[in-house]
């Protein structure tokens, strides 16, 4: 898209504890800020962030030329179960589709494992007389008179939304659409939506669950967007703004209000998009994105600058059949609590102290030892964070660690080292999940470590997994907000098809043309540079799951593409099996013009420590230099052990590592012998 000469870009990422703000000017200079989130009114922190960040650099909201927002409103609505009152109308005999779910058993030997309760209670689900077969042929016509009677009991439940989800409607949505129109006319609920308008793909449970999630979060998201839009307008923001979606692309506020389920994993996507752009810029072919917050760690694999994607994710144990970045989340973060299992073994997480009361060192009433307390006791963290705005009580953490360590027969320092070793092992398992288990050799990968706590653990994990390096971006604690600045506008379309031979390819061409025509109508700026990526979901006949691969008009080449992907993913291909294509997909992106990366070429490479601090390393205290990252220039080299501090994070460099700063202020931690 065409951009004015003077650029002022802003991204705001709202988290549970902090709201992060990133502002970038025309020359690439980045300004960052953190402020407390306002969970009861999340839009207020965003507006405060706009005013506060711009005042700090003497600019005004009217000067903004790009504004991007990442929100956890949809995520938290599902997790906390405080969404809309939702009802559902489904095909006769399928009232329990959400309760029965599917047959996946992630913890097959755990007798205490329980499925999450459906978002729509059984009492709010009624059945309609109608039936389509798997090819979309009408077996039983929709009985409209019976439908009117069936939905009357829902009227008394004062529902916000009613979802209509009929069997096989993804092939032929006629009955579903007609029923939705009829129920809307009856005024049973404020809103009525057909499941095929949310996702039109096979698998009834997943499709219905996705529609239920969309309906559950819709009123809250719509209200939030409306309040935020009013606040931005009053603040003087004139530029069109965008919302981050789970796929790593941007949506307009109107699209986000209509399809809020696409924003459910918004909070995870920003950092991955940023890591992918940085990996491409640095020429790193395989990168593991590693984002550590207070409660969890989000891990993603990036190949050739493109993050792995999935079409079937989960939120709070509920399936979500929409495109999203493929992020593996584990319960390991700065607030993860140390505890002893029944055998006396040291464990860490997944339960967390959170922000309130938080770690003991936070001085907010926390009583349980956490990973952050371990870093403080070992000296990796000093007695203040966020440039002195946040104080840590290291002595309180040390006393608690000493008392707790007595039951293990360990000193406070050895107990703290033990906590970090355990959490490192947990994080390493998470990294292997997205790499080794997908056939990727970690020795060929670099670790992109960010989030508030990522740089504290990057060195240990790169060493533990024998990775090429750990790369710390310029502002790791604000990385999700920074990453959003260069995310593209994106729309996804999918159509169920049935292609088992070359003769069906002509119909596929027509399907793609129809989706492209729809996409052009949906784009705010159809005249802008637009990329259309044509994909298909293919599988061997008889398989239960598909692989998404690029589409080719030649059937034999299409099969070669599929079998290459099948072998890469599963280790084999079957030349004797028949292939079928079941879904045609169109990914439409409009890349925004990237801002310049901030250069530190003008800063002297020679640096001196601000001070020295005792840090406990491998069983002994050592005097370790403490550096200010703001003084690093192009070519700055730091030999470990060292601690590097900055406003939004702290970086630890092991004794066997060397940290090298590049022109664009990315810090590369590598084994010391490689530098000799």
TrEMBL record:
Hydrolase found in the keyword field: yes
EC numbers: 3.5.2.14
UniProt enzyme class: hydrolase
Entry-linked Pfam families: Hydant_A_C, Hydant_A_N, Hydantoinase_A
InterPro entries: ACX-like_C, ATPase_NBD, Hydant_A_N, Hydantoinase_A, Oxoprolinase-like
Entry keyword Repeat: no
Domain Hydantoinase/oxoprolinase N-terminal: residue ranges: 10-185
Record's keyword terms, sorted: Hydrolase
GO molecular function: N-methylhydantoinase (ATP-hydrolyzing) activity
The Hydantoinase A/oxoprolinase domain, residue ranges: 207-492
Coiled coil regions, renumbered to chain: none
Residue ranges constituting the Acetophenone carboxylase-like C-terminal domain according to the UniProt record: 499-670
Name this polypeptide is given: N-methylhydantoinase A
Organism placement in taxonomy: Bacteria, Bacillati, Actinomycetota, Actinomycetes, Micrococcales
């Amino acid at each position: 898209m065409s951009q004015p000469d003077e650029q002022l870009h802003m991204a705001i990422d709202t988290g549970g504890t902090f709201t992060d703000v990133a502002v970038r000017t025309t020359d690439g200079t980045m300004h960052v800020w953190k402020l407390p989130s306002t969970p009861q009114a999340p839009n207020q922190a965003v507006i405060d962030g706009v005013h506060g960040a711009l005042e700090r650099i003497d600019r005004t909201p009217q000067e903004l030329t790009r504004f991007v927002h990442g929100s956890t409103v949809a995520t938290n609505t599902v997790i906390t179960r405080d969404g809309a009152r939702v009802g559902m109308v489904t095909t006769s005999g399928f009232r329990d589709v959400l309760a029965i779910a599917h047959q996946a058993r992630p913890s097959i030997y755990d007798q205490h494992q329980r499925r999450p309760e459906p978002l729509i209670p059984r009492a709010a689900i009624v059945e309609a007389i109608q039936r389509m077969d798997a090819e979309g042929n009408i077996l039983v016509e929709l009985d409209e008179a019976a439908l009117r009677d069936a939905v009357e009991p829902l009227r008394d439940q004062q529902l916000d939304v009613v979802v209509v989800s009929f069997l096989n409607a993804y092939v032929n949505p006629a009955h579903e659409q007609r029923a939705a129109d009829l129920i809307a006319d009856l005024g049973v609920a404020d809103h009525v939506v057909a499941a095929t308008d949310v996702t039109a793909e096979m698998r009834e449970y997943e499709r219905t669950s996705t529609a239920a999630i969309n309906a559950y979060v819709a009123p809250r998201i719509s209200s939030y967007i409306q309040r935020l839009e009013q606040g931005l307008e009053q603040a003087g923001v004139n530029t069109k703004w965008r919302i981050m979606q789970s796929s790593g692309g941007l949506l307009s506020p109107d699209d986000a209000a209509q399809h809020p389920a696409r924003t459910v994993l918004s909070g995870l996507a920003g950092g991955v998009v940023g890591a992918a752009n940085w990996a491409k810029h640095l020429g790193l072919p395989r990168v593991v994105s590693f984002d550590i917050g207070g409660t969890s760690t989000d891990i993603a694999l990036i190949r050739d600058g493109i993050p792995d994607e999935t079409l079937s994710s989960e939120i709070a144990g509920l399936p979500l059949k929409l495109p999203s970045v493929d992020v593996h989340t584990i319960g390991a973060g700065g607030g993860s609590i140390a505890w002893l299992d029944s055998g006396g073994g040291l464990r860490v997480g997944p339960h967390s102290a959170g922000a309130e009361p938080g770690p003991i060192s936070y001085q907010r009433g926390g009583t349980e030892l956490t990973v952050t307390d371990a870093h403080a006791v070992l000296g990796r963290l000093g007695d203040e964070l966020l440039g002195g705005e946040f104080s840590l009580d290291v002595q309180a953490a040390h006393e608690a660690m000493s008392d707790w360590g007595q039951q293990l027969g360990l000193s406070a320092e050895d107990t703290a080292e033990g906590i970090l070793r355990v959490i490192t092992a947990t994080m390493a398992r998470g990294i292997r999940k997205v790499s080794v288990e997908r056939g990727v050799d970690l020795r060929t990968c670099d670790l992109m470590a960010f989030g508030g706590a990522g740089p504290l653990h990057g060195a240990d994990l790169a060493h533990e997994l024998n990775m090429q390096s750990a790369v710390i971006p310029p502002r790791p604690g604000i990385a999700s907000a920074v990453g959003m600045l260069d995310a593209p506008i994106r729309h996804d379309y999918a159509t169920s098809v049935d292609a088992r031979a070359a003769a069906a390819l002509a119909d596929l061409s027509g399907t793609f043309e129809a989706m492209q025509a729809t996409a052009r109508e949906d784009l705010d700026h159809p005249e802008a540079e637009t990329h259309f990526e044509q994909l298909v979901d293919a599988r061997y006949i008889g398989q239960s799951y598909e692989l998404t691969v690029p589409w080719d008009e030649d059937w034999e080449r299409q099969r070669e593409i599929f079998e290459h992907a099948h072998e890469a993913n599963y280790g084999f291909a079957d030349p004797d099996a028949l292939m079928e294509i079941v879904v045609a997909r169109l990914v439409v992106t409009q890349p925004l013009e990237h801002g310049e990366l901030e250069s530190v070429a003008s800063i002297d490479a020679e640096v001196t420590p601000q001070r020295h601090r005792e840090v406990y390393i491998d069983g002994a205290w050592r005097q370790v230099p403490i550096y200010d990252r703001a003084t690093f220039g192009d070519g700055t080299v730091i030999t470990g052990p060292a601690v590097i501090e900055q406003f939004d994070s702290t970086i630890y460099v092991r004794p066997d590592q060397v940290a090298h700063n590049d022109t664009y202020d990315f810090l590369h931690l590598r084994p010391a012998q490689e530098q000799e």
